Amino acid sequence: MTVIAFSDVDVLDMLVVAAVAVTAILAIAIPRRVGATIAFLVFGLLLALLWARVAAPDVAIAEAALGGGVAGALLVDALHRRQPAQPNRDRRRAVAITAVGAALGAVTFAALATVLSRLTAEPADLGPLALEAVERSGVSHPITAVLLNFRNLDTLLEIAVVVFAAVGAAALSRDRIRTVTDPGPVRRVIAVIIVPALVLLAAWLLVAGTSEPGGAFQAGAVLGAALIIAHLCGVRPARAAGGRALVLVVAGLLAFILLGGIGLAATGTWLALDLSWAFAAILAIETLLTVSIGVALAMLFLAAGSRDDAAAADRAADAPALGGAP
Amino acid sequence: MTTLQLFMYAGAFILVLGVAATLLVRDLIRRLIALNVASGGVMLLLLALADRGDGEPDPVPQALVLTGIVVMAAVTGIAIVLARRVEQLDDDLEEVEQ
Amino acid sequence: MSAAALVLVPVFLPLAVGALSAVLPRRAAATLTVIAAVATLMVAVLLGIAVLDAGPVRLEVAGWAPPVGILLAADGLSVVMIGLSAIAVLAATLVAAADDHFAGGHAFWPLVGAAAAAVNGVFVARDVFTAFVLLELLTIASVALVALGGTRSAAAALRYLFVAVTGSLFFLLAVALTYGHTGTVDLARAAERADDTVIVGAIIALTVVGMAAKTALFPLHSWLPVAHPAAPAAVSALLSALVIKASIVILWRIVEYFGPLTDLAAPLATAVGVAGAAAVLWGGVLALRRDRLKSIIAYSTVAQVGYMVLLVPLVFTASDPQVAWIGGILITLAHGVAKVAMFLAAGALATAAGTSRLDGLEGTISRMPWTVAAIGLAGVSLAGLPPTLGFVGKWMLVQASLDAGAWWWLALLLGGGLLTFAYTARMLRATFNPPGDFSGARELTRPARTVAIVPLALAALSVVLGLIPWLLIEVLSAAPMGGGA
Fold it and tell me: Which residues form a coiled coil (chain B) (predicted)?
């Protein structure tokens, strides 16, 4: 039996990985939603730390912003709604199912580990190729070059994912997002201080993203957080309901497709960016994307976390006719 | 064990853990959390693979992970909306029965 | 516009129209969506001409070649599938425009645009990560579309979401392995560099499991008979006919590129074949036992998915794999057309009769003969009887089975056809007049004319294509599977 020696591994890396694994286990094992969500929040933050350890600062920022946002939405939801009681499963059956699941999981893990062990530690030559191409991309930060130039189709599709998720959420959300009418002094202070700070941070992340870690997604996530906080603190223009918000969301995607068409007209290939105007195009599209993503995320997570006073009337009307599709 | 191996196996472990929980747990929100945990595992694997070697890490997998994180956030958002609908319906049915 | 530029039109056009539909009123959204579907069909024809002329049409997006950039390519499969997508979307949106019950709500229009863009993207994708993002877009759109069926559909939609996203994560793991082993996520480049049997086998296995979940291949199929009937009728049509085709195409692509590289391909292919066989039998038997029209049609899809994966083992054992590929693709096309017809017709019957239970449909045949005829004709195509397109595809698969000496697939193909015939007959019989009643006096709300015509037109299309399949076969052979991009 081979002894697993950890001689090559940095102690800090080991600790962070161990912490990540522990919080992962907690997040799935804690039976109460509030507890599980808090463990998940910590898991996300530790992941962000781990991403920094693996030399991926862009991903770390995005994980912190988006992971925190997602966990936040889950937490608000868990705090506001009563967790439905699960029907009492026979104790022995529950243990049996868990045991079988654990066994299958262990087998799967062993199989995966065997396959993974066959991967070499040699870096892919794609890395140097991509890095070398960055100087022809219009920006100096490699991740931005990949996201907004080399593989910008993926980014366009990803924006589409966010946009249509927001469209779906807007259509499916029974609860009208309630405007906060009297926020109180504490919230007013928050609105005045924190919201502008977040908006500034978003702007900085956006502009810095061309040459340093940052970019539209991180900026969009921070902007989304700012919008949610603004809404909860009663700032009137931040009303995220309905048509006007959707226009902003959809505009980013349409602008990106339009840019693709401009590339086609100018260079003969969809989404191609001519080096002379690549930087300007990238910055412009990233600005629009930041707004789109910010508003879309705010819509998504406000819809997910809204209180349901307005829906009480809906429920009364629905009760006799709880029907589905023909 | 090298750092790469540590991260790869940890990623695989977290993925399997998350998928198993998604399939076995009953509570909708907990399953959603498990799904997010699982995706974290795959991301760890991709980022570990990006950082092989001594030079600068490969930006392509890092961009892929960034995309993946955004996609999972959108999916989670819509899943929460749906879960609320499902659970509110159950609440309504209980009220109607009472 | 050069042929290469055409490749992204079926993606960007529906996507843009979908985005606009989110903020435009219903009539404008419906009109734009129909126009986009017609335009996509025209693009499919143009691409087909280009493919017949010069083989696969390649597009390096943003001007960067792989491995740094993303490659898209339209081959024979891409062209015919984009054609199917255009026809399916056109049919579903015409009916939904005529009668809003089929749509389920205003969000139908933007979400259908997103779904159409996503499937068209998958049909031309040659990059596994782009495929992943496209599949996620498709999942979001489809899940939301299912939920449009009403509050009760939310549970079905959420179940579909969990299955689909778990499947995507398996596929993402396959993507990670591909990158880790070959240093690229482009299919062709990766296939050139892959040299470890175990890793390639794992990539195929993970993709198979992930796509099986998303396509509802036995035994991961149980979400489909719950989700498809819960959705509004036009959505069910698109889900069965189009959405599940995207994951099947990805499965085929991975098999096409990575299959020849590993010894593990043969046992994996056999496992897939066994699952397909189980699907055909399970789906067929259960379809015979259900009492609701839409449930029967949903289980019919479960069975047909079995046929679609049946080409995988045949490709590896037949001496001419092209026969197996083309046969399977034609069956998939036939299924797509037939399913749209069936679900739309079922929706029309259910709306008119007020129920979708079989025992509530008595007498509908005399009031709505065209609609019932559509179901019958579609069933004939699914059963693989001549002179339909389904027959042509099945015939080629039969040939491939005989060629490989695999008489068990042959038995399955024929047995499955009998089951299909049986449950189609059951559906038709339910619409007959009660014994002794020749008056057709049943009071029904007659559907809009479009709703009556479209399903029959689609079913007739299966026959037309069955009588002149040569054009399809030529396109599929001009840029065949395994031809490389």
Answer: none
The whole-chain average pLDDT of chain C stands at 91
d(CA A124, CA B53): 9
Nearest to C221 by CA among C142, C279, C179: C279
Helices (H), C433-469: 449-467
Return the closest-CA partner of residue A298 out of A198, A217, A235, A221.
A221
Helix or strand (DSSP H, E) at C61: strand C57-61
Whether C286 contacts C301, CB under 8 Å? no
CA distance C216 to C142: 14
Separation of alpha carbons C353 and C359, rounded Å: 11
Q: Do B46 and C151 touch (CB under 8 A)?
A: no
The widest CA-to-CA distance across chain C, in whole angstroms, is 72
Cβ C173–B15 below 8 Å, yes or no?
A: yes
What does the pLDDT read at residue A64?
Answer: 92
Q: What is the CATH number of the domain that holds B13?
A: 1.10.287.3510
Separation CA C31–CA A151 (nearest Å): 33
Within 8 A of B8 by CB-CB distance, chain A residues are 116, 119
Q: Give percent of chain A above pLDDT 90.
A: 50
pTM to 2 decimal places: 0.94
Judge whether B61 and B49 are in contact, CB under 8 Å.
yes
Question: Is pLDDT above 70 for C394?
Answer: yes
CB of A149 less than 8 A from some CB of B: no
First vs last C-alpha separation in chain C: 21
Residues of B in contact with A5 (CB under 8 A): 1
Question: Is B84 in contact with A77 (Cβ distance < 8 A)?
Answer: yes
Answer for the pair C236, C229: CB distance below 8 angstroms, yes or no.
yes
Domain count, chain B: 1
Chain segment C409-421, per-residue pLDDT in tens: 888 988 999 999 9
Give Cα separations from C185 to C168, C175, C285 (angstroms): 16, 7, 41
Q: Where does C318-406 have alpha helices with state H?
A: 321-353, 364-367, 369-383, 389-404
Output b/e per residue, C329-358; b: 16+ Cβ within 10 A: bbbbbbbbbbbbbbbbbbbbbbbbbeebeb
DSSP tag of C73? E
Q: Is the pLDDT of residue A236 over 80?
A: no
Which of the two residues, C438 and C172, has the higher pLDDT score? C172
Inter-residue contact A154 to C96 (CB < 8 Å)? no
- Measured CA distances, B22 to A22, B26, B31, C223 (Å): 17, 8, 5, 15
Q: Which amino acid is at C54?
A: A
Count Cβ atoms below 10 Å from residue C82 Cβ, excluding itself: 27
Among the ranges given (B19-28, B81-90, C455-464), the one the predictor scored with the smallest mean pLDDT: B81-90
- Please give the C-alpha separations between residue A299 and each of A167, A302, C108, C157, in angstroms, as whole numbers: 9, 5, 19, 20
C58: part of which helix (H) or strand (E)? strand C57-61
Segment A130-140 mean pLDDT: 89
- In the structure, what pLDDT confidence band is assigned to residue A73 with cuts at 50, 70 and 90? confident
CA distance C230 to C154: 9
End-to-end Cα separation, chain A, in angstroms: 62
Q: Is residue C23's pLDDT more than 80?
A: yes
Cβ(C345)–Cβ(C356) below 8 Å: no
User: Closest to C110 (Cβ–Cβ): which among A119, A154, A167?
Assistant: A167
**Whole-angstrom distance, CA of residue B12 vs CA of residue B41:** 6
Structure-token pair, residue C47: 């691409």
ipTM: 0.95
* Neighbouring subunits of A (3+ Cβ pairs under 8 A): B, C
Q: What is the pLDDT of residue A178?
A: 62
CB contact under 8 A, A326 and C356: yes
